[in-house]
Amino acid sequence: MAKMKALVKKYSKPGLWLDEVDIPEVGVNDVLIKIKKTSICGTDIHIYNWDDWAKKTIPVPMVTGHEYVGTVEAIGSNVQDVKIGELVSGEGHIVCGHCRNCRAGRRHLCRNAKGVGVNRPGCFAEYLCIPVSNVWHCDPNIPTDIFSIFDPFGNATHTALSFDVLGEDVLITGAGPIGVMTAAIVKHAGARYVVITDLNPYRLELAQKMGVTRAVNISKENLNDVMKELDMKEGFDVGLEMSGSIKAFESMLSVMCHGGKIALLGILPASAAINWEIVVFNGLTLKGIYGREMFETWYKMTSMIQTGLDISSIITHRFNYTEFVEAFKLMASGNSGKIILNWE
Ligand code: NAD
Ligand code: ZN
Question: How far is the CA of 114 from the centre of ligand 2 (A)?
Fold first, then answer.
C-alpha cells in the first residue's frame, strides 16, 4: 500500500508525531484530496496537549487536522460533479444523512456528526479522503491561504449571521482568531459599533487592525465606560461569546440591552453558573452554535470575500509541515492569529 507523511496522534500522551501512514482508500462516494495548505485550530492544540477532552474523544493512533485546502487527486466511481485537479476544501462535520434534522436539510444539527481529524482521519497529511457530499468547490480567484481557514471562518460566519446586525451594536467577547474574523463579518454586514474584549494585547491589536470600533482590554477597562464613551444608552443589541470564559460571558450579560440576542460559540465549562435573572427578566435570547450550516455558511463566506470582506490579516504565520512543533508552540502561546502549515 502507498504511504504518505502525516501528523499523527501516535501515543496517548502530549505531542504529535510526523509519521508515514497508508494513503486512505477511496470509496465509491469519496474524494481523495491532495493537501496544499492546512491551518491549526484550538482543537488541534487540545489534541496536541492531550487534555481531558482529547483523552476521552480521540482514538489513538489518529491523523489530526481539519482545516485545509487542496486539489482533487482521485474520485470514487459514483462521484459525478467533482473533477480531478479541481481546487477544493471541505466541511469537517460528516453527517449521518438519516436523522430528522439531516432529512429536513438542517445538517448542522445532525445528532450523529463525526469530525474530520477528531473521530476520523484528518488533513494534517499529504492526502485526505472525505465523502463527496462534504466537498466545497473553491473559487480559484480567492487565495488558497483564505480557503485553508474556511472552517474557522465558517464558525465565525455562522455565529456572526445568527442574528440581524444591520445598524446594531455588537459585543464580541474573545479576540481569538474566530472572534477577530467575526468582528470583520459583522462590520461587513452593517453593524454600527463592534466592541471586542480580550486580555491578551497581541490579540487586541489584531482586532484593532481588523477595524473594530473598540478593542477592550477587560483586565484594565470596564464595558460600562466604553458604552458611555460611545454614547450608547441601553446596552448591546447582539452579543457573540467567543472566549469560552464564564467571566467574559458574565461581563456580556451585564451590558446587554433588554431583548438582546446572544450567540454562544465558545465552549463554556459544563459547571459554569450565570445570573439567570438577567436572562429571564431582561428577555434575552441565547443560541448555541456548533460548526457551520451546510452549505449556506460556505456560500456566504465565498460571497462575502467576493464582495470585499478582507480577513487576510488574521493569518500571522506560515510554516512548512515539518516545522509543526514550533508552529504548535506558537499557537498555544496565544501570540498568533491563524497559523498555516504548507504541505507542498
Ligand atoms: P482562542 O482560544 O484562540 O480564543 C479565545 C480568546 O478568548 C483568547 O484570545 C483569550 O485570551 C480570550 N479570553 C479569555 N478569557 C477572556 C475574558 N475573560 N474576556 C475576554 N476574552 C477572554 O479560540 P478561537 O479559536 O478563536 O475559538 C473561540 C472559541 O470558540 C473557543 O472557546 C473554541 O473552543 C470555540 N469553538 C467552538 C466551536 C463550535 O463549533 N462551537 C468551533 C470552534 C471553536
Ligand atoms: Zn444526521
Answer: 10
Active site members:
43, 46
Which residue in the block uniquely carries the three cell numbers 474530520?
116
DSSP state for residue 108 in the 8-state scheme: G
Q: Which three cell numbers stand for residue 14?
A: 502530549
Measured distance CA(327)–CA(136) in Å, rounded = 26
Prior bond to 140 cis, omega within 30?
no
**Residue 113, phi-psi category: left (phi > 0), alpha (psi -120 to 50), beta (remainder):** beta
Say whether pLDDT at 238 is over 90: yes
Beta bridge partners of 339: 317
Q: How many CA atoms lie within 13 A of 127 on its CB side?
A: 18
Buried b (16+ CB within 10 A) or exposed e, 187-218: bbbebbbbbbbbbbeebbebbbebebbbbbeb
Its pTM stands at 0.98
Residue nearest to atom 27 of ligand 1 (CA): 178
Set of cell numbers at residue 310 = 478582507
What does the alpha-carbon distance between residue 279 and residue 110 come to, in Å, rounded to a whole number?
27
Q: Note the pLDDT of residue 1.
A: 82
- Within 6 Å (CB) of ligand 1, which residues are found? 42, 155, 173-179, 197-200, 203, 218, 242-245, 247-248, 265-267, 289-291, 334
In a mutational test of the pocket of ligand 1, which residue from 39, 52, 265 has the highest number of ligand atoms less than 8 Å from its CB? 265
Handedness of CA 13, 34, 90, 239 (dihedral sign): positive
280-314 pLDDT, tens per residue?
A: 999 999 999 999 999 999 999 999 999 999 999 99
Q: How far apart are the first and last CA of the chain?
A: 22
Burial of 47 from C-beta contacts in 10 A (0-12 / 13-18 / 19+): buried
Backbone angles phi and psi of 71, in degrees to 5: -125, 155
Q: How far apart are CA 150 and CA 231, in angstroms?
A: 36
Q: Which atom in ligand 1 lies closest to the alpha carbon of residue 179? A: 26
CA neighbours within 13 Å on the CB side: how many for 139?
A: 13
Cα–Cα distance, 197 to 183 (Å, whole number) = 11
